[in-house]
Automatic annotation (TrEMBL), chain A:
It is found in: Cell membrane. Belongs to the binding-protein-dependent transport system permease family. LivHM subfamily. This is Amino acid/amide ABC transporter membrane protein 1, HAAT family. Pfam families: BPD_transp_2. Signal peptide: none annotated. InterPro entries: ABC_transp_permease, BCAA_transport_permease. It is a multi-pass membrane protein. It comes from Kaistia soli DSM 19436. One of its GO terms (cellular component) is plasma membrane. The chain crosses the membrane at residues 12-35, 42-61, 67-88, 100-122, 155-172, 202-223, 243-267, 279-297. Coiled coil: none annotated. The lineage of its organism: Bacteria, Pseudomonadati, Pseudomonadota, Alphaproteobacteria, Hyphomicrobiales. Keywords: Amino-acid transport, Cell inner membrane, Cell membrane, Membrane, Transmembrane, Transmembrane helix, Transport. GO terms for molecular function: L-isoleucine transmembrane transporter activity; L-leucine transmembrane transporter activity; L-phenylalanine transmembrane transporter activity; L-valine transmembrane transporter activity. One of its GO terms (biological process) is L-isoleucine import across plasma membrane.
UniProtKB/TrEMBL annotation, chain B:
It is a multi-pass membrane protein. GO terms for cellular component: plasma membrane. InterPro entries: ABC_transp_permease, LivHM_N, LivM-like. It comes from Kaistia soli DSM 19436. It holds the Pfam family DUF3382. NCBIfam families: PRK11301.1 (NF008450). Residues 19-116 form the High-affinity branched-chain amino acid transport system permease LivHM N-terminal domain. It is found in: Cell membrane. This is Branched-chain amino acid transport system permease protein. Its main location: membrane. It comes from the Bacteria. One of its GO terms (molecular function) is branched-chain amino acid transmembrane transporter activity. Keywords: Cell membrane, Membrane, Transmembrane, Transmembrane helix.
From TrEMBL, chain C:
Transmembrane segments: none annotated. GO terms for biological process: D-alanine transmembrane transport; L-alanine transport; L-isoleucine import across plasma membrane; L-valine import across plasma membrane. The keyword ATP-binding applies. GO terms for molecular function: ATP binding; ATP hydrolysis activity; L-isoleucine transmembrane transporter activity; L-phenylalanine transmembrane transporter activity; L-valine transmembrane transporter activity. It comes from Kaistia soli DSM 19436. This is ABC-type branched-chain amino acid transport system, ATPase component. Gene3D superfamilies: P-loop containing nucleotide triphosphate hydrolases (3.40.50.300).
Length: 305, 463, 298
């Protein structure tokens, strides 16, 4: 029971991070039908930005409140990562819009190589550890020397994720921007004819996806306390798995998929073997796609002849 | 800036371009400021400390501003002018020249490939030729072969396979395991590795080839990762991340060995000075022949019903089904054949390195091979070969930029920038030529005249 | 009902030896019943037209016949002249073309646009060539038997290029053809599979009057050859009336009329369906007709 509870808590925490990244994949796929391979690395860069500013605030500027520092860092990371993704879209994807379908995909793979190697060159190849922050835990249950605990960090991650998702949901459902996004998703040409600024909507979609990835990056950094230039790929692929599992193009699906992948991973490690946890995640991706290609909450694709 | 003024029309656009350039500079400052300007390093106590590099940031931002300004004022207007200006129709001489170039390119290239090691030895001696035969020749040819193998799947059948490296790994590990455990010869294991890889291709392909669109790409990616992770974790068989070492060398068809200690060592038998160059030259010709086998089979199959069915599948799967083509089987043959060539290349790779580990079979490897196929122009053998030369040869050349140390100081390691430049090149080539280097399609059969087909009509497949 | 009355008056030759018998076919997409309880016959050697307003379910019927959709209910029986019979609803799509010999064209043309006309027509002969190439193995070795088979296939292709007036463009990519020529090429491609039944989805759509007339000649030609029966969907009434032997009319997925062109033309339900009269008026017209017929035959 304790183990179960503990894995549940860990799984939801990890799943929140995956879910936040997955939204970026799903939104971009929904609006321009492109698998944004560089998104995992955008997430990694955001974690680096967070790491740098956290250091700047705590060691150089001497901000003593960790919570204040974290909030400031997160906002800065959201802004700067949004800017980065905006620039990437302008430079690497927009010129290819409407051309050969594989071109943006290859461009995105190239961009992913560029980002991780840029960080390696600019910040060095070694791990970047932060001093531990918010290290307290709350014990929920204890038996036979095994305690199920929830750490302050985990609570922080849950709260931040919930608040941001709520805000994000509001933007997508209730604002003109969200409406423009949904219009572009349905039919980009028609939306343009009706006066929607398609280019701007797509740009803002990239910015929003990056901002959420930056939240995930900050939380990831807080949770694990360390980041490396190669940390983009695996969380990126898993978040993508989450997006597909939930039904690519569906926002609630991305969050649900993220939680499921997080839970699968932690439960698999907890009950079976930690070795094969990634194999489990990828196998589930393959099985879901083979038997339920539309994902859990996605719309089935009809083959019109 | 006189040219800029004349080309960009009203003077206001110079101000516009300047504003635009400043904006780009601000964006660059936002991105590069923290990431480049604030370098984090671990000090003696293993704590991260920040060192600043504002000078470098200033240089980068300056380059971005200047580049953007030049782009909007000079380069883009020039490019649109070129596009707008009606190209004079190619003269008969030009057309003939182009046709001759196309006709002669492949044979000349082939001859060059066959005499390349001899040239290297002639000019640089056996020891000096090592690097050029091994790091360039063999390395590039491996990727040419992988590109040609994947070209069957992606370029001809239009199925996007992002896990091709899995079959490369199957081939490599088949050879590594069977050769080290049972001492079987390369010449027996080469076909076996190919068959095993093809079987894996069929096994993995069968459930997933029904999938449409990007889903196929993602499932193949997942399979590629699963195979790599299994190689890491199935330690009893694969020795995990440590990999398998001392994989036997390939023999000269069992007649000569290249092992230094063997009695029938090539150099000993012929009374030559000991050098690893003989083995490398032998390997060079071996991979060249393997790659040419791939090309030969592909070119042959393209003209057969199965090859035409692949291309038809890429164009329109539903139409194929309406014509009685069993699309699942057709896709499976493409998948299995591509996998087989991947398996051949894999076993060659294992024998050449003498060592395999899961490190060599990451997603990046698959991505590089897909990039070679797409950059080359889907379906074009020459294009794929050119892309492999440009991308792999180019990045290998970057290793040679030691003179940059003189410019940037001893601490500067040009090797670091290799992959960064590789990625940038991928993006730039795609923007410059989204259809790849050689995009026109050659018809497989003709009644009166062979005319190549413009890339704008050729579909890219759906998967 | 009037249509029933008229059907009793005239002979129905297509029921004697139908190449295709559609029985009680229903196709349902979720809540939408696109085709309901549809039965009709396609006579051997006939040109049968399937007509109806937009969205009536005509293409859906084609998709059921050619296996792209599995009907939710009903039976589709195909009978070759040689006597073999096939239950199409139980066969996967590519086997329907390969074994039952049903070929089709598509409402929104589906050519292999990056391949030449000749290549398009060779792909259509895939199964025959595949056998001749010994499932590729003999072909790779360059066996003469395969060479011969390929030559024959090219002859077949030439024959149909000639019939459709496309010989001059044999080496051009299909995507470069003008619209009307693409429609003809699609028919040529379907004919290269050697079909017993040819299903054409709006072959005259978007053609100019001259092209439309050429199409009529082509279809009559195919009928003349005697091997292939034609089922066609068409909106252009002049084409339908001119060349078809038998017309089936659908509306909202239900058959509302079935008979010779002249019968169908005069069927008030068809007139109503095409003129968009609402149901009340149809009933009124029917009543009047009934009165008339009763008056005429006391
Ligand atoms: N795959 C599908 N899923 C859901 N509904 C479908 C599908 N295919 C067809 N329909 C619906 O079935 C109905 C009949 O469509 P169909 O294409 O057969 O009409 P049609 O008679 O060919 O019309 P048109 O003359 O416009 O071609 C339409 O309402 C259409 O929306
Ligand atoms: Mg229709």
């Amino acid at each position: 029971m304790e183990i179960f509870l503990q894995q549940l808590i860990n799984g939801i925490t990890l799943g929140s991070i995956y879910g936040l990244i997955a939204i970026g994949y799903t939104m971009v796929f929904g609006i321009i039908g492109m698998v944004n391979f560089a998104h995992g690395d955008v997430f990694m860069v955001s974690a680096f930005i967070a790491m740098i500013f956290f250091l700047l605030f705590t060691t150089v500027l001497g901000v003593s409140s960790v919570i204040m520092a974290l909030i400031a860092v997160m906002i800065i990371a959201m802004v700067l990562t949004g800017l980065l993704n905006w620039a990437i879209e302008r430079v690497a994807y927009r010129p290819l819009r409407g051309s050969f379908r594989l071109a943006p995909l290859i461009s995105a793979i190239g961009m992913s190589i560029v980002l991780s190697n840029f960080i390696q060159v600019a910040q060095g190849p070694r791990n970047k550890p932060l001093p531990p922050v918010l290290s307290g835990t709350i014990t929920l249950m204890e038996r036979n020397n095994f305690a199920a605990t929830i750490s302050y960090k985990q609570i922080l991650i849950w709260v931040v994720t919930a608040v941001l998702l709520a805000g994000f949901w509001y933007v997508v459902q209730k604002t003109p921007l969200g409406r423009a996004q949904r219009a572009c998703e349905q039919d980009r040409k028609m939306a343009a004819l009706l006066g929607v600024n398609v280019d701007r909507t797509i740009s803002l979609t990239f910015v929003m996806g990056a901002a959420l990835a930056a939240v995930a990056g900050t939380l990831y950094l807080t949770y694990y306390g360390v980041v490396n230039f190669s940390d983009g790929f695996t969380p990126g692929v898993k978040a993508f798995t989450a997006a597909v599992l939930g039904g690519i193009g569906s926002l609630p699906g991305a969050v649900l998929g993220g939680l499921l992948i997080g839970l699968i991973e932690t439960f698999w490690s907890g009950y079976f073997s930690i070795d094969y946890k990634d194999v489990a995640a990828f196998s589930i991706l393959a099985i879901v796609l083979i038997f339920m290609p539309q994902g859990l909450l996605g719309r089935p694709e009809v083959e019109k002849v | 800036m006189a040219t800029a003024k004349t080309t960009s029309g009203p003077g206001g656009s110079i101000a516009g371009a300047a504003r635009d350039a400043i904006l780009a500079g601000v964006v660059a400052l936002g991105i590069f400021g923290p990431l480049v300007g604030l370098k984090t390093e671990q000090n003696m106590q293993n704590e991260l400390v920040i060192t600043t590099r504002w000078g470098l940031v200033a240089i980068i931002v300056g380059i971005v501003i200047a580049g953007r300004f030049l782009l909007t004022t000079t380069i883009w207007p020039a490019m649109t002018r070129n596009k707008l200006r009606d190209k004079p129709p190619a003269t008969a001489g030009e057309v003939a020249f182009r046709a001759r170039l196309a006709r002669w390119f492949a044979p000349t290239g082939l001859v060059f490939l066959f005499i390349y090691p001899a040239l290297m030895v002639y000019f640089l001696g056996f020891q000096g030729s090592l690097k050029w035969v091994d790091n360039f020749g063999i390395q590039i040819l491996i990727y040419v072969m992988l590109g040609w193998g994947l070209n069957i799947v992606v370029g001809l059948a239009g199925l996007l396979d992002l896990g091709y490296v899995a079959f490369y790994a199957v081939g490599a590990y088949s050879y590594a395991l069977l050769a080290t455990h049972f001492g079987l010869s390369f010449w027996l294991l080469l076909p076996m590795a190919g068959i095993l890889a093809a079987m894996w291709g069929i096994m993995l392909g069968f459930p997933v080839l029904r999938l449409r669109g990007d889903y196929l790409a993602i499932v193949t990616l997942a399979f590629g990762e699963i195979i790599r992770l299994v190689l890491i974790n199935f330690r009893e068989l694969t020795n995990g991340s440590a990999g398998i070492s001392s994989i036997p060398k390939i023999t000269f068809f069992g007649i000569y060995s290249f092992d230094v200690s063997a009695p029938n060592n090539f150099a000993k038998v012929w009374g030559l000075a000991m050098s690893s160059a003989y083995y490398k030259i032998f390997l060079y010709y071996l991979i060249l022949l393997l790659a040419l086998l791939t090309a030969f089979v592909t070119l042959r199959l393209r003209k057969l019903p199965v090859g035409r069915a692949w291309e038809a599948l890429r164009e329109d799967e539903i139409a194929c089904r309406s014509l009685g083509i069993n699309t699942t089987n057709t896709k499976l043959t493409a998948f299995a054949l591509g996998a087989m060539f991947g398996g051949f290349a894999g076993s060659f790779f294992a024998a050449r390195q003498g060592f395999v580990s899961p490190e060599s079979f990451t997603f990046m490897e698959s991505a590089v091979i897909v990039a070679i196929v797409v950059l080359g122009g889907m379906g074009s053998m020459i294009g794929v070969a050119l892309a492999a030369v440009a991308m792999i040869g180019g990045t290998e050349l970057l290793r040679e930029l030691d003179f940059l140390k003189a410019v940037f100081g001893e601490g500067f390691d040009p090797d670091q920038f290799r992959m960064l430049i590789f990625g940038l090149a991928m993006v730039l080539v795609m923007i410059w030529k989204p259809r790849g280097f050689v995009s026109a399609r050659e018809p497989t059969v003709f009644l009166t005249e062979r005319k190549s087909i413009s890339s704008s009509l050729v579909k890219e497949g759906h998967g | 009902m009037s249509s029933v009355l008229s059907s009793e008056q005239t002979p129905r030759p297509w029921t004697a030896d139908p190449v295709l018998t559609v029985e009680h076919v229903q196709m349902r997409f979720g809540g939408l019943v696109a085709v309901n309880d549809l039965s009709f016959e396609v006579g051997r050697g006939d040109i049968t037209a399937l007509i109806g307003p937009n969205g009536a379910g005509k293409t859906t019927v084609f998709n059921c016949i050619t296996g792209f959709y599995k009907p939710t209910q009903g039976m589709l029986l195909l009978k070759h002249a040689a006597g073999d019979t096939f239950l199409l609803e139980r066969m996967p799509d590519f086997r329907i073309s390969a074994k039952a010999k049903v070929a089709r064209t598509f409402q929104n043309i589906r050519l292999f646009s990056g391949m030449t006309l000749l290549e398009n027509l060779l792909v259509a002969q895939h199964n025959r060539l595949m056998l001749a190439s010994g499932m590729t193995i003999l072909g790779v070795l360059g066996m003469p038997s395969y060479k011969r088979a390929e030559k024959e296939s090219i002859e077949t292709a030439k024959f149909w290029l000639d019939k459709t007036g496309l010989t001059a463009r044999a080496d051009d990519p299909a995507g470069d053809l003008p619209y009307g020529a693409q429609r003809r090429l699609e028919i040529a491609r379907a004919m290269c599979t050697g079909p017993e039944l040819l299903c054409l989805d709006e072959p005259a759509a978007g053609l100019n009057p001259r092209e439309s007339a050429e199409l009529n000649t082509l279809l009559l030609d195919i009928r003349q050859m005697g091997k292939t029966s034609i089922l066609l969907i068409e909106h252009d009434m002049s084409v339908v009336m001119e060349i078809s032997d038998h017309v089936v009319v659908l509306e909202y997925g239900v058959k509302i009329s079935d008979g010779t062109p002249s019968e169908v033309r005069n069927d008030p339900r068809v007139i109503a369906a095409y003129l968009g009269v609402d149901d009340e008026e149809v009933e009124k017209v029917e009543e009047q007709l009934d009165e008339l017929t009763e008056g005429a035959t006391p």
